[in-house]
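== Fold encoding ==
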Amino acid sequence: MELNSVKEKLVSVHTDVLIVGAGPTGLALGVDLARRGVDALVVERGAGLAPGSRGKGIQPRTLEDEIRAAGGDYPIGLIWQDGERVTERSMFDPAEDGEAGSPFGEPWMVPQWRTQEILHARLTELGGRVVFDREVTALHQDEDGVSVHFASGEGAGTVRARYVVAADGGRSAVRRAVGIAMTGAGADGSGVVAPDPILVGDVRISGLDRDHWHLFPPRGDGDGFMAVCPLAGTEYFQVVAGFLAGTTVDASPEGVRKVVAARSHLPADAVTEVRWVSDFRPRAALADRFRAGRVFLAGDAAHIHSPAGGQGLNTSVQDAYNLGWKLGAVLRGEAPESLLDTYEEERRPVAAEMLGLSTKIHRGEARRGRETRQLGLGYRGSALAVETRGDVPQEALRAGDRAPDAAVDGVRLFDVFRGPHWTLLAVGTDAEPPALPGVRTARIGSDERYGTGVFLVRPDGYVGWAGTDPKDLQEYAAQVGLSVA
């Protein structure tokens, strides 16, 4: 897909929300705000969208948004030894039937660069835009908004926004500008999950089938592991190779070819194209805060993960989905500004949990299984989770939990929930839901996942309020920007 980089002057631009960073987080937030009619601008330091498949796994919780057509199932792992096929193994623990009320039980592979293309196209379709070659150099905020200044030259200028979202990665310039520190989640407190560097690249390679994730264990001569995974929906493979601490990694096309030849039975010229290559040391770190006044942190700017387990990109996109509807409600004057305080309240504990999980998987202390699918994450402790039924068991669906899917009379609840709206769902009750502006109403018979009651489902798919008498909704509705008619 051809993507034309937008080049426009930002001498003095005013917008409601400035999103810094055009990775999956920034683009997803831009899409969500655009479909809510919020004036938002995405700016990106680079000349275009990032090219690599840094994150290639979309977990079921994120798949409940639309991206299925661009990817495919993860292949089975195939272990090689001295040029011979040794054994096969599943790379993930299988999902249980109907696990957690989602039609998507397993992770879905979509290269990150493809995810970004899809989000960028959707943003453009909705009338949004991304301005490239814009590097943040300074930021000043006051009671009314934030002024963000960009580097001199063609990209110079200032954007004045009511709110700013830092989605500019682990080395976030915006996070540094507002003085928010990150605390390492590594055992030594440094945030280094492992001191061993890793090389990753997207390549065309001959001599390996596309039905397997090819695994080459260390040979014992000082080399590390290598994995070669076909990238679904493309003609490329992702090569990942580990090195011993202190090794200087040759992150060049020729370096990739040398690694493939040294660690497999393939010759160097089997790598016929290197589309992208990079090297890194796995880190894990969490921002001390997710908000400083009118500036919010999201994605890698707020939490840096080891790639093990596929948690970084998915946690980041869910940040955007959580923040988008709240910004929209406040900017439209429907909800009090205090609603935005719940972003950090809800997302920081989730990020901390996912950081711990991805670190354990990286170190071989846990497998990719139920937790990595993120379907059990919720916000029961949030100020926005109001449970008014007094006799509901802890294991049952409660306010703060993800609203599960169900097929009722040929209609899927996920189809009812899909969109930027709230949904008021009456289950197994004759109670008449009140009329709420902008809220879709639905009624189904008793369902084992929901039990009986009335459920107000948030735009991001979580149960906000649960009860038996819809008349008790008034106070909650005012808190989140829904006025009872």
DSSP finds nine helices and 28 strands in the chain. Confidence is low (pLDDT under 50) at residues 1-7, 186-190. The first strand starts at residue 10 and ends at 20.
